[in-house]
Every structure is written in C-alpha cells, then in structure tokens.
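Re: the 386-residue chain
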Amino acid sequence: MKRILWTLVLAGLGVVGCTGKITTSDAGDDASSADGADSGPIADGDGAPADGRGDAGLDAGDPGAPDGGDRSADAGDGSDAGGDDGPQDTLSARHPNDVGMGDDPAVVWFEDFEEGSLAAIAGRYDQVRDNGRFTLTSDTPSGAGFALAMRAGEGQEAVDLYKMLPSGEEWYVRWYAKYQRDITWHHSGMWFGGYNPPSRWPSPGAGTRPRGDDRFSISVEPVFGSPALRFDFYNYWMTMHSWMANPVDDGTAYYGNALVHRNDFTVDEEHWVCLEVHVRLNTDLGSGQGAILEVWKNDVLVQRFDDTGPLGYWIRDKFCTAAADGAECTDYPAPFDQVLDLQFRSTADLALNAFWPQNYITEGPAGTLTFDQMVVATRRVGCMHR
C-alpha cells in the first residue's frame, strides 16, 4: 500500500527524469533545473524529456547496509588519485606503477598509451573515431609516459575507442580520467558491457530498453551538475526504469539510469581521478540473483549493489538509497523498500565483451577528456601504487 501511495504522490508531482546535458556553470542551480541534471526530477507540462540528453548519435556503427547504505566513506576530492597507501590485495599492489600489468593472467585488456604513436594505438582497436582530435600528452597520473587526450565538440561531436573483448562473467574496469573545466559534457566517460552476438562496433540502442538477450551497458560519466559536477552510473539493462510515468515503445522511453546520487562523487575537473567499476552478471537467468555492481573513486568505495541491497526506491529512472544526498533524490523522499534488480540478462549467451571509452559533446565549446592506465581484469585492480 505504501508503494501505491508514493507512486500516486510522485505522479501528482509530475516527477520525471530529464535527459539534459551537464555543465559545471550551473553549480548554483538545484538538481531539477534544465541544465543541472541528467535525470533529475522536473515537473514538465507534457511529460517529455526537458533537455534532450538522450543517446541519439551514439550508435557509432549503425556491501550495502539494509537501510540504504553507509555514507561514512568519502568518495574523494581528487587530491590523491591512488598511491602507496592503497589496498594491498589488488593487481596494482602486485604491479607498482602498472609495470607488467598487461602480462598478468587476470588482465583481459590493458592500455597505457605507450605504443609510440596514435596509429599504433588505433591499430589495437576495432573502431576508432578520432577526426584528428586525439593527442598524446605527457600530462599523466604518474608523471611519466603518455596519456590520450580526446577532444570533442564544435562539429566533431563524438570521439572514441571501441574494442570487442573475450566474453566474461565478471569484470573489474579501472581507468584514470581528467576532465577539462566548464564544459557541457553529454556522454563523456567509460562505457562497457556486452552484446549478443559480440560486436566489433558499439550499438547502445538509445532510447530503448534491452530485452535481456541482446545487450546491456555500464557507464560512469558526469551526470549531475549541482551542487558540483558529479559522476553517476548511466546504465542500460533489461530491468531498467523509464523517465516516463507510462512508457511507450517509440524509442524515446528509456535512457541510462542513475543509481548513486552522491554529492561527494565529484568529477574534480582539471585533476586526475582514479575510477573502478566491478560488475558480476546475474547467475540466475530468471532474476538478479548473483549480480554485483560497485564503484570506487580513488580507492574509496562509493556504492555497492547486490541481490540483497541496499534498499531504496525509484523516482522514474533514478534509484535512490539512504546514501543518496543529491537533490534529485532528497527532494522526493519515499520509503526504502526495494532492492535494485540487477538482472542484466536472461540468457547465458549475453556476457561482458565490449569496452568503449568515449567523449561525446553536442553543445557549447569543445572539451578535452584525457584517459590513461585503463585496465579490464577479473579481480580487483585498484589505483596505481608508486
């Protein structure tokens, strides 16, 4: 009964998830403003997405507490993207400065951009869209070697790398990223997931919900812009929710779901940040049983979901736990009475096999997103040890 009542209340408020682009210039706006949130609650007369932060144009190839989580851990402020005091049971502890990381048997893919040229780097991937916007830079997390700067926008909206990898059931994906300040990011970050059958080019299915036998994607990128630019998930999977109260099957009802909503999960522009996501696919093909999704920033666990919790509630396309302090959740409180359904798939034929770092900017000035030290592995990677 409580769930029915809260559904009626939210419907009466006109709470929907918008799909707006994100910029840091809106830091003083609340999360429901048109340019301050990707999927923040808004009241819109016709129920349509307010800002168009959909994924059109992306189709390049044609342990949580039961009350909602523990907020005692700080997600980090970008002042130290890993280091000597990081966890000792990680691949990074085994390989200081990532030396020899690519040869570790637990590593599925390793990229440090030390191949010597852009052409050599491009030759390792199935799809490369650079449009002359890639640059090797000596500004790196370790202070040595090279990183890859991806510049997008102003007529060259999408730049990316894409790699089809051997299929797996569980991945840890770690990368370093540095974001230019005061940019209107659209989809700029790390995307990975799976296709059935495996594909040599990305096809995210913008606006549509996966069936369970075809695809799923996990992304961490700038999603909300208030009170500071913040990361969140932007995920597609078979049990995701729509921004619409009554979804219609017209290709516009489903865009990536945000799940963290932490004001301290900040992007820290002009600073290197170390990010890592752990995904284990559901082992029961009829439910989310066995699945895990968790994310770290600078070796601090920001959020963990599994088939037991934490408990939360949905506001259209946003899942909110007690750890969520973003206004897109706190402005619309409801009982914490649901477990996030992480049924990524309905068939064992769908597995992790796609790796897709990208920078996609559709308005405002061109912006640079720089990547380095990207690792896909079958065990915890951790931030670099010096």
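The chain has four helices and 19 strands.
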